[in-house]
Amino acid sequence: MFSKVFLFLFSICLFFFQSASAIEPAPARGDENRIVAKISGHPVTETQIMTIMKFLVFKEEDGLTREALETMPPGLFSQALDNMVMRTLLLEKAEKQKITVSREQIDDHLQQFMKGFPSNDDFVKKLSMYRIKKDELEKHIEGTIKMLRVIDSAVKDTPEATQEEIEKYYAERRASILNAEQARASHILLSFDPDASSKQKETIKKRLEKIRADIEAGKITFAEAAKKYSQDAETAAKGGDIGIIRRGQESKAIETAVFSTPQGKLTQVIESQNGYHLILVHEIKTPGQANLEDTKDLAAKYYNQRLRTKAANKFLKEVKDSAIILMLMTQQQFVERNSPKWENIFKK
Q1: Which pick of 72, 103, 177, 296 has the fewest CB atoms within 10 Å?
Q2: Residues 267/273/275/278 CA torsion (nearest 10 deg)
């Protein structure tokens, strides 16, 4: 479940929420907004880099105080430039493919993004602190959707495994699949970034524990909570339904929690590499109860997901490797020119 290609693409989505909006024309001259670099011919301005930097720290939740941000964090310039490389090239492909995004799609993704905050007020306050306007964030979301479509387009023709490959894959694992315990379950995911601080993680964990308490108290059903809060958009729309999982398929922490929880009950909050999970165990099937056709279909689906993920990774590497970067300003020059602007953003 958690290894699906969607989660890979969702992580790309979160990655690009940290980046600047669509490629903007850059002036050839002018002291206020100089060109920092050219990425395969596309000029990148100081304003664009500053925007990326704001979004890079925006994701930090409670990990950084306003006081800590008054001085431009070391290394932020190079991170922003790295992000801009991938963003520029993917948006260029999106433009060539004439990809468009509807207002409804932007609103749907905005709602998904807002789930990462305890309340709408917290969301608005965070935008205000970073001097980010809502329409600016919406432009980021629009660009993100375009980039995800570029990735999806690149892998959509990935050949599915042949019947022979599936049979071989299944045959090698048939005994373990049929004899493994299986569970039918639903989950709620609150994600965190790979570099999230302990404080950030604790805040997210407490949010999910509060959601769990509300479900147990009957204030909201699990399906309603999944639709409202879960950041796994693919399963949230289905009330968190993730179908069948089997022992040996997931991380040790998830596996232990799921198969030690009685049917119809909630697990405790579980941490994985993707975030925190709350799982409702609908049914447990003991070894030998698994259906042959169901497990065969599961094996085929899992194998094809692996092929798509591999194709997506290959595509992104090729995109990044194709970049031709011409630097027109050093990091030191950028910091000297833009530190006052940065300090003004977070000045009380």
Answers
A1: 103
A2: -10
Which residue shows structure tokens 């447990």? 284
* 63 contact partners, CB below 8 Å, separation of at least 6: 196, 197, 199, 200
Q: Could you state, in order of their start, the residue ranges of all structural domains in the chain?
A: 5-157+311-346, 181-289
Rounded CA-CA distance 116/125 in Å is 14
CATH entry, 181-289, from 2.40.180.10, 1.10.630.10, 3.10.50.40, 3.40.50.11740: 3.10.50.40
Q: Print pLDDT tens along the chain (348 aa).
A: 444 444 444 444 444 333 333 333 444 444 568 999 999 999 999 988 988 888 888 765 444 555 667 778 778 898 889 888 888 999 999 999 999 999 988 988 888 778 777 778 888 888 888 888 888 888 888 988 999 899 999 998 888 878 787 777 667 766 565 556 788 899 999 988 766 778 888 889 999 999 999 999 999 999 999 999 998 888 888 999 988 887 777 788 888 899 999 999 999 999 988 789 999 999 987 765 555 455 666 667 777 878 888 898 899 899 989 889 999 999 999 999 998 888 888 765
Q: Which residue in 96, 89, 112 sits closest to 320, CA to CA?
A: 89
CATH architecture of structural domain 5-157+311-346: Orthogonal Bundle (1.10)
Q: Give the whole-angstrom CA distance, residue 156 versus residue 266.
A: 36
How many other C-beta atoms lie within 10 A of the C-beta of residue 96? 9
Measured CA to CA, the distance from residue 126 to residue 283 in angstroms comes to 41
